[in-house]
Write a structure and sequence with these properties.
This protein is α/β, with parallel strands linked by helices. It folds into 4 domains: 172 residues, no CATH class; 216 residues, Rossmann fold (3-Layer(aba) Sandwich), CATH 3.40.50; 156 residues, P-loop containing nucleotide triphosphate hydrolases (Rossmann fold, 3-Layer(aba) Sandwich), CATH 3.40.50.300; 87 residues, no CATH class. 45% of the residues lie in helices and 13% in strands. It is built from 28 helices and 21 strands. A 7-stranded parallel beta sheet has the order 5-6-4-7-8-3-9, sandwiched between helices. Strands 10-15-14-11-13-12 form a 6-stranded parallel beta sheet, with helices on both faces. Strands 1-2 form a two-stranded antiparallel sheet. Helix 5 crosses helix 7 and helix 10 packs parallel to helix 11. It is globular. The model has no long low-confidence stretch (mean pLDDT 89).
């Protein structure tokens, strides 16, 4: 009897894919993926067993078109447990979940151990000799006594990644050969990391040749040199502590490429917490390395819809599935949530993280309630999967502090003398002003020709902006404006600053995240010291003023009610009181601030690490599905309301109304959405201001509720412009 893995429309089965062929192909691919972290035999076994349950008459009838369901994965999972001993249970998770996701372990219905015991598959033939021989599975590492369960669960996800990616690629090669050929063709065009390093060195040499002589540029060259020297050190954890404006982006990439080439690592993963700067950094890297070598994986990416960009968009659509690219630029959310996911679509990329240089830009932005599991994951990647991690920030977050249960050990600082660097790059003076009313703050802003004011909430940003007596040269920025609108305003701001024109900006903290603007004066509402330091990075950024720039920190009239913001501001105040003689943005004060912050904060709010470390008995009951649901950097993501104020948005909405596959259209519409909370959505809906497309996608139809200066104004959604009511 011949068994099959996949079928075609041909009824004589002459071109169907045989099951033996598929199992061997997947075993070959998965073993190659797993060999990177010394687990080749795990990949072989996972590949040979994953579809063993398809060797049934029932599955053949299903391929022939009969409407029957065949649970084929549980048979291979059961074989894995029987042939692989105690550790075979780890592979049972991967095989049982290679379509639907890693299940929870346990004896309740639907959980792995229940399924292994109770689910039955009739009429199974053991078609591969390897399936009849017990295998001595061994872990490729020694478990740490403090986190034994975490290490085992992490390894299970990595094997799951190898299996799901291999299974998908072989299935794609058979079922969609054109797509597979496109993937293969694109892979052959990618450059090796040594070539990318040479391209970056050429760019840096050219920049240095044309740089205006200045103290700042001299210090940037010093940082770059330190990065090149440190790149020769052994793999591990590194910190790059450089003040804002010190050239971290290109210097950190120089370290990453030199380090990867020196130690034979495979790719660079650049993770950024803020979507507002990810495109900026990706553009810089693409201009150096060529777009075909830089994968942008973030929700703000927009297909260009022009012939010359078609090739890149095609490649990107394939590469985001498994991160098969030399340089990956992504978000913290995508990176860390994938490490704790249970879904094949999110986990396919994990095996390609092994033996990479991971640069965590703005490392202090890891949410503190998930800090412990994130640190545990980073330790696993460094200790067991050959990675190096660079903590790249102006405000190092004390992740090696002894009070942290999962602290990072032996973090090597790249800059030879960070204190001297911070002192020499000092371009601003911080002034603590006390309390300022919105009215007084507006008067202060109006009296200055060029000034940036950053507040902690969107309502205050709007209030202060609307109190400005003159709108000419005044700008507002917040997430109440859709991304295209924000970028347009930001371009205008940069141009006015360049031309020396009046420019008064009221913004939320979104402008702090790497946005390259340079103001002589910055006002900042009281916040955490890291946020104040980020704001200070927008002041006298290039050091071109004769004296120091001014950063004025003030207490707002109505402090934010969010507990997290209150806690950060409180710890900042406590730090400044206990270190009265310190530079408030210096290394000493910043470390003390984070120590105080971590001391009062629950660093594993969802008890991720505790739950994963619980199963150390022979049953190995890991709650993979539960943890994937619980590990969310953004708890209430809100609802995206589409703003149809531009021709492209209107055109995309027309497509959305009639398409059967909305995902590509929705991705492009991300540039025209404002995210609102549930109560705001309810008000818009009750006011009749939105229309639902396909019963799922809210569109703002009362454009009187979208102000050209401040964006979406939910409180004005009940008032309509008369002209919009005329049919």
């Amino acid at each position: 009897m011949k068994y099959y893995a996949h079928s075609t429309d041909n009824p004589d089965k002459s071109d169907w894919q045989g099951l033996k062929e598929h199992l061997q192909n997947v075993a070959d691919l998965a073993s190659g993926f797993a060999e990177v972290f010394s687990a080749r035999e795990w990949g072989v076994m996972a590949g040979l067993l994953h579809d063993a349950g398809k060797a049934t008459h029932a599955f053949i009838r299903r391929l022939e078109g009969q409407p029957i369901r065949v649970n084929h994965s549980i048979f291979g999972a059961r074989l894995s447990r029987e042939l692989g001993g105690k550790l075979g249970l780890l592979m049972s998770y991967a095989i049982a979940g290679h379509h639907g996701g890693l299940p929870d372990g346990g004896i309740q219905e639907g959980q792995l151990h229940y399924r292994l015991k109770h689910e039955r598959i009739p009429d199974v033939a053991k078609i591969m000799p390897a399936m009849e021989t017990p295998i001595d599975l061994r872990l490729p590492f020694t478990k740490r006594p403090e986190h034994p369960g975490f290490a085992l669960s992490f390894f299970t996800r990595m094997i799951f990644s190898c299996l799901t990616d291999a299974d998908f690629l072989d299935t794609e090669a058979f079922c969609d050969p054109n797509r597979n050929v496109a993937r293969t063709r694109i892979c052959t065009r990618k450059s090796d990391l040594a070539s990318l390093r040479d391209a970056l060195n050429d760019r840096l040499t050219n920049l240095e040749k044309h740089a205006v002589p200045s103290r700042v540029n001299t210090l940037r060259r010093s940082v770059l040199n330190d990065c090149r020297v440190a790149a020769r050190k052994e793999s591990g954890f590194f910190s790059l502590s450089v003040p804002t404006g010190g050239g971290k982006t290109l210097s950190s990439m120089a370290f990453a490429l030199d380090h990867a080439v020196t130690h034979g690592l495979r790719r660079i993963i650049y993770a950024i917490p803020f979507t507002s700067i990810i495109e900026q950094n990706a553009h810089v890297f693409s201009s150096v390395f060529g777009r075909e070598n830089v994968l942008e994986h973030h929700c703000n990416y927009k297909n260009k819809d022009v012939p010359e960009e078609e090739g890149y968009d095609r490649w990107r659509g394939l590469a985001v599935e498994n991160w098969d690219a030399p340089v990956v630029v992504t978000t913290n959310v995508q990176f860390f949530e994938s490490l704790f996911s249970n879904k094949p679509s999110r986990c396919r990329k994990l095996h390609n993280i092994a033996r990479s240089v991971i640069v965590l830009d703005e490392a202090q932005a890891i949410p503190t309630e998930y800090l412990e599991p994130c640190l545990c994951a980073l330790r696993e990647l460094v200790e067991h999967y050959g990675c190096s991690v660079v903590l790249c920030t102006a405000t190092q977050p004390a992740l090696d502090d002894e009070s942290l249960r999962s602290r990072l050990q032996q973090v090597q600082e790249i800059v030879t003398d960070p204190k001297r660097l911070y002192a020499e790059l000092k371009r601003i003076k911080v002034i603590f002003e006390g309390s300022l009313t919105d009215e007084l703050l507006s008067e202060r802003i109006a009296s200055l020709r060029q000034v940036l004011c950053i507040v902690s909430t969107k309502p205050q940003a709007r209030k202060v902006f609307e109190r400005l007596p003159e709108r000419d040269g005044a700008f507002h920025l917040s997430t109440n404006m859709y991304p295209v609108h924000r970028r347009r305003v930001l371009d205008t701001i940069c141009q006015r600053l360049k031309e020396g024109l009046a420019c008064r900006v009221i913004s939320t903290s979104l402008i702090e995240a790497g946005v390259d603007v340079d103001f002589p004066v910055v006002y900042r509402a009281m916040a955490g010291l890291d946020s104040i330091a980020q704001a200070a990075g927008r002041c006298n950024r290039e050091g071109r003023q004769r004296g120091l720039g001014r950063v004025v920190v003030f207490e707002p009239e109505n402090p934010p009610k969010m507990p997290w913001l209150q806690r950060c501001a409180s710890r900042a105040g406590e730090t400044l009181r206990t270190l009265p003689g310190e530079d408030p943005l210096g290394l000493g004060a910043m470390r003390r601030y984070f120590e105080l912050l971590y001391d009062v904060q629950d660093l594993d709010k969802k008890q991720i690490v505790k739950r994963l470390n619980a199963p150390v008995d022979r049953n190995l009951c890991f709650p993979f599905k539960e943890i994937a649901q619980d590990f969310r950097f953004i708890e209430d993501e809100g609802t995206a309301v589409i703003i149809p104020g531009e021709p492209e948005a209107e055109s995309l909405l027309q497509q959305l109304q009639f398409t059967e596959n909305p995902r590509p259209v929705l991705r492009r519409l991300q540039q025209y959405v404002v995210t609102v909370r549930s109560r705001e959505l309810a008000k818009l809906y009750s006011d009749g201001a939105i229309e639902m497309i396909q019963d799922s996608y809210p569109v703002l139809r009362n454009m009187a509720a979208y102000n050209e200066h401040v964006g979406l104004c939910v409180d004005e959604s009940e008032v309509w412009d008369e002209s919009s009511l005329i049919l």
